[in-house]
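Title: Request for sanity check on Oxysterol-binding protein prediction

Description:
We are preparing a figure and want to confirm that the structure record we downloaded matches what your pipeline produces today. Could someone re-run it with the sequence below and paste the raw structure tokens into this thread? We only need the token string, no images.
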Amino acid sequence: MLPERMAFDVVSEVSQETCEALADCLNLFTKQEGVRNLKLEHEQEKNKILSEALETLATEHHELEQSLVKGSPPLSIISEEQFYDAVSDSESEKSLSGFETTAAYSLEDSMDSKDTITSSVSEEKVCGSGESLSNGIKKHRTSLPSPMFSRNDFSIWSILRKCIGMELSKITMPVIFNEPLSFLQRLTEYMEHTYLIHKASSLSSTTERMQCVAAFAVSAVASQWERTGKPFNPLLGETYELIRDDLGFRLLSEQVSHHPPISAFYAEGLNNDFVFHGSIYPKLKFWGKSVEAEPKGTMTLELLEHSEAYTWTNPTCCVHNIIVGKLWIEQYGNVEITNHKTGEKCVLSFKPCGLFGKELHKVEGYIQDKSKKKLCALYGKWTECLYSVDPATFEAYKKNDKKSAEEKKSSKQEPDEMPLPDSESVYVIPGSILLWKITPRPPNSAQMYNFTSFAMALNELDKEMESVIPKTDCRLRPDIRAMENGEIDLASEEKKRLEEKQRTARKNRSKSEEDWKTRWFHQGPNPYTGTQDWLYSGNYWDRNYFNLPDIY
């Protein structure tokens, strides 16, 4: 009995010591949790203070900009209607109307010129004949089923204040900040001015072909003017097709990756005169007062009749005044277009706005041969037009313009005498050739998410088309369709449902160690640049759609 009693005492003592140790650990953990909670509260308070300071700083900076531009007193002593924004005098995009920059054209010399490249027939093609068959629709709609919602009661800042410096593709935004298009449809807007590609194919001069390709590259971003609504993020495996007999092309796109989000597209001329393809990875960053979108990816245009290939990357797009003021968009950065057959290059500079807005929307650059000799100069605005002119004439104009600007600055010191960008037109240098002019937006554009006529038709759907397109086509997405129809609550619910469905599918693939396989594109080197790209695999237009993923 004695040994058993001793063993019992030992176990009891050890148990007691263990209990005391566990109690000490629990007490320690409790103290540590209290310290962590205190630190968390301090961090949250610091974050709140910094956010409020940033908002105050942004407001003061915005007021200072306005006073410098107009020579007016700070915002605190003037009304909302009086202050001038660097882009426009229209209503705030936060109240959904967008900015309006309608510049007057001085086209007399150019429009009467026999050398004008853009023909009247091509201009008519941009608007569309309205009678051509396109995916079963003979006449394209000119309006959406419902106008856009007011964003007055919603603040982008309230969402983005927690995301400074973060990758925005992983941030879920409320549906109110969207426009009723998928990003796959948004990138299809590159094709609005396809007549410039057809024109390039018909020209015999390599320099004239480069001019048209450069005009196409500039026109491809023109639809982004005033479009501060965010397109819906495509779901993995989502597709979009568009056939436009009136514009002479058909296009296919597919969301080939979700993280990072990559969209691949392939377009071809219906007369086998061109192929245009590429992949876009829109890398988004929030920098306090602005959201910047860098469209990583290479654009490749092949003119088949001339066995030529052109490649370029798009400029960076930036949405300003996220915290306070009127939302406005600018494009900036250098775009280098290379003709891989001749070695010719077109180097375009998309000008940043600058303090007083004098460079707002401006684009200029040169076409050079392979020895870097300047063959012609290009200039204009990506929101309006593009011209070409002799390099010597352009440089003489630039020199005189700089001289007159300096004289004006020295002779007129009053801030209210400074020219405002909205009042300036694109001055047409004598001897210039008009390459491209933007198609006017429809009268109801401001109520329809600032869509162009081309964008207005991208999501239209009828029964005949529905029986032809695959079930992955984003025309069939219920959240986009609900938003287009004005059902904002349903759109929000469907958006959340689809996102959750996509997450569940990804988890299931991860458990089964199954890799996602793209259907219409595959990775490979770009045949002209050698960089990694997404290339069309073929067979989409055979209409043999089997084993497609259930993504909606």
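Thanks, this matches our download. The chain has twelve helices and 18 strands.
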